[in-house]
Structures are given as C-alpha cells and as structure tokens.
C-alpha cells in the first residue's frame, strides 16, 4: 500500500513537471478563416506593405536628394518615414508568410526580438512626433531665429534622445515579459508578439507586468501629448497674431498634417495599452494592432505629401 502510494506520488510529480515545461516556440494564430480568405488577406496586406515601403523610403530619398528640403522639419520627416518603414517591416513580412503556411511558429528568441524592435520603433515614434511638434513651434512662433534655435546641435540630440528612449522602453518590457514562464499554452492569439497577448498565455503572475505596461505607456503618452499640446497652443497664438489670411492658411496647412498623424497614432496606442487588463479582447485588439502597425505607416506619407506644398513641388522636380 505504501509502495503503491509512493509510485502514485512520483507519477503525479512527473506530470506536474511536464506541465510546467516551458515552450521553446510560439504559434502566432493570427487571423483565422478559410484558405481563400487567408490568400485574400495576403494580397491585401502585401499591397499595403509595398505601398508603405515605396511611400516612406521614397520620402527619405526625396529629402536626401532635394536640397530645398534640407532643413530640420524635413530631416524629422525623413526619420519618421524611416521609422515607419522599419516599424511595418518588423511585423508584416512574418504575417504575410503565415497567411500561406500551416506551421505558424516563431522561436522564443524570434518572438523576443520582434517584440523588442516593435516596442522600440513605436516608442521612438512617440518621442519623435513630440520633437516634431516642438520644431513646428520654433519655426512658426519665432521664424527669424529658427535656424539658430533649431541648429544641428539641437535637432540631432532630439532625434538621438528619441531612439534612446525607445531602446530603453523596449528593453524594460522585453526583459520583464520574457522573464515570465510560458507553460500553459504557446498559442499567441495575435499576428505578432505583442505584450498583452503574451501576458495572456503566461503561467506566471503578470500583475507587475500589467502595472509596468500601464504606467510606462501612460507616462510616455502623457509627456509626449503634453509637449504636442503646449507646442500647438503657442502655434495657435502665433496664428491668431497673423493679419494675413494667406499666412494663416499656410501655417494650418503645414501643421495640419502633423496633427492628423499625431491624433491617429496616439489615439490607437491609448486605446490599446492604457486601460485595465480585464478589458482586453484579443481578437478585437488584433484588428486595432494591425491598423496602427500596418495601416498608419502607409498613411503617413500620404498625409504629409498631400498636405505639404514643398513636398509636392519636390516630387514634381524629381519626377518631371
């Protein structure tokens, strides 16, 4: 009887050990549906991705080639375009491959690398959009001193600081997330390795991670949005001082594209991350994530080129 009980206890112990064995690969479940639907989505997102690369890398090339665009505003815009191309490239190629594959796995290291790059580029863009708002304030509020106030000694450190902030935030979340144990399931209900769906499949206590996500994203959003709002508050004052209707329209045209991009980008991030974990609906969130990681990088070149006279003229000179 004693021997039988001992054997039973050993078997139970082995089962428990087996159950807590961590997975070395994850499976990105992505969008589910028939094979025909998967093929349709493949071509839709392929078209969006190609347009994103052509638009954003084209913008970078335009700024480099046209000497009339060699000023801080367009340097910031070229960095934003480069970020958008990278941001989309972290997620889209793997997602496109998965549409046509049965085996949708990604290694533990690959998942961590994807999450790190995704968070890094996303956070860097938040800081860069704030720096661009400050640049517009300096250019419009005191245009005579713009070249001095926004010299390379100012805008280069702003760009570098944006990247440093992105790398730091990505490092914190990647280390925190992949310090958890993943033994309950390896199926990620998402198209890429984002933080909330990874926390959802962890068998560790994720309360600290959820607080870290909420406070880190919340703090970054508050700081960057405040910079944007304060900058545009001063810009509004400068606009109201202008007597020329043409001058006012030029300022609105220049700033409108930036405000549009900022509103769309920050709105989706706030919706995704700054809310209680109990309100996460992974299937719904997957669609929103696809929007801001794949669709927004495609929209930015359209927003900036259609609303910006200098960019349109530069495009005519290059194409003509």
Overview of the structural elements:
It contains eleven helices and three strands, in the order αβααβαααβααααα. By secondary structure, it is an all-alpha fold. It has a three-stranded mixed beta sheet. α2 (35-65) runs parallel beside α10 (282-307), α6 runs antiparallel to α8 and α9 (245-273) runs antiparallel to α10 (282-307). The radius of gyration is 24 Å and the shape is globular.
Q: Summary?
A:
This protein is mainly α and 320 residues long.
Biggest sheet strand order reads 2-1-3
Tell me the span between the first and last alpha carbons.
92 Å
Largest sheet: 3 strands, mixed
Oligomer: single chain
Average pLDDT for all residues: 83
Number of strands: 3
List the helices and strands and how they pair.
Layout: H1 2-19, E1 25-28, H2 35-65, H3 72-99, E2 105-107, H4 108-141, H5 146-149, H6 152-177, E3 187-188, H7 195-200, H8 207-241, H9 245-273, H10 282-307, H11 309-319
Parallel strand pairs: 1-3
Antiparallel strand pairs: 1-2
What structural keywords apply?
globular; 11 helices; single chain; 320 residues; 78% helix; mainly alpha; 3-stranded mixed β-sheet
């Amino acid at each position: 009887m004693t021997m039988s009980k001992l054997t039973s206890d050993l078997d139970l112990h082995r089962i428990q050990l087996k159950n807590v064995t961590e997975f070395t690969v994850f499976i990105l479940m992505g969008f589910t549906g028939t094979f025909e639907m998967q093929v349709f989505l493949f071509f839709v997102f392929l078209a969006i991705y190609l347009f994103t690369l052509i638009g954003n890398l084209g913008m970078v090339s335009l700024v480099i080639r046209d000497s009339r665009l060699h000023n801080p505003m367009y340097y910031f815009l070229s960095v934003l375009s480069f970020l958008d191309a990278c941001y989309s490239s972290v997620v889209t190629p793997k997602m496109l491959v998965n549409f046509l594959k049965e085996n949708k796995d990604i290694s533990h290291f690959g998942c961590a690398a994807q999450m790190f790059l995704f968070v890094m580029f996303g956070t860097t863009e938040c800081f860069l959009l704030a720096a661009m708002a400050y640049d517009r304030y300096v250019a419009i509020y005191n245009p005579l001193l713009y070249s001095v106030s926004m010299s390379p000694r100012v805008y280069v450190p702003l760009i570098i600081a944006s990247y440093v902030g992105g790398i730091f935030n990505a490092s914190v979340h990647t280390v925190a997330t992949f310090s958890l144990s993943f033994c309950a399931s390896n199926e990620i209900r998402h198209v890429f390795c984002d933080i909330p769906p990874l926390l959802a499949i962890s068998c560790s206590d994720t309360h600290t991670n959820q607080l870290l996500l909420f406070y880190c994203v919340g703090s970054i959003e508050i700081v960057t949005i405040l910079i944007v709002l304060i900058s545009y508050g001063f810009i509004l004052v400068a606009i109201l001082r202008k007597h020329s209707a043409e001058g006012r329209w030029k300022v609105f045209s220049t700033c409108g594209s930036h405000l549009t991009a900022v509103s769309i980008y920050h709105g989706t991030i706030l919706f995704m991350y700054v809310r209680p974990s109990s309100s996460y609906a992974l299937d719904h969130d997957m669609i929103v994530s696809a929007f801001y990681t794949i669709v927004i990088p495609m929209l930015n070149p359209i927003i900036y080129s259609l609303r910006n006279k200098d960019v349109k003229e530069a495009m005519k000179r290059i194409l003509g």
